[in-house]
């Protein structure tokens, strides 16, 4: 729950920065604002990914190190968006890992 609160605070700060940039610039920022529309509730934790994929922590760590899985890192915490995990699964199937 604490991590969720921190992520919400970070998102609020990023939105404030975006508003300030819009005021100071005539550059279109539609792409940037779309990137900030991250639904915190849809992020998966490291353990959720391990359970979902049915892999061990050792395999998880190996896949992160080799780039098979690409987490969003907040300190030492790894988070994943559903679509990023689906992409990783697709890439792994194509490479014959799954």
From TrEMBL:
This is Helix-turn-helix domain-containing protein. It comes from the Bacteria. Pfam families: HTH_17. Residues 51-91 form the Helix-turn-helix domain. It comes from Sphingobacterium paucimobilis HER1398.
């Amino acid at each position: 729950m604490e991590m969720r609160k921190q992520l919400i605070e970070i998102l609020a700060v990023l939105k404030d920065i975006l508003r300030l940039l819009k005021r100071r610039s005539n550059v279109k920022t539609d792409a940037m604002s779309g990137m900030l529309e991250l639904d915190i509730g849809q992020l998966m934790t490291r353990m959720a990914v391990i359970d979902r994929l049915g892999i061990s922590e050792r395999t998880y760590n190996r896949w992160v190190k080799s780039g098979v899985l690409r987490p969003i890192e907040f300190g030492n915490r790894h988070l994943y968006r559903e679509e990023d995990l689906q992409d990783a699964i697709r890439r792994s199937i194509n490479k014959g890992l799954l």
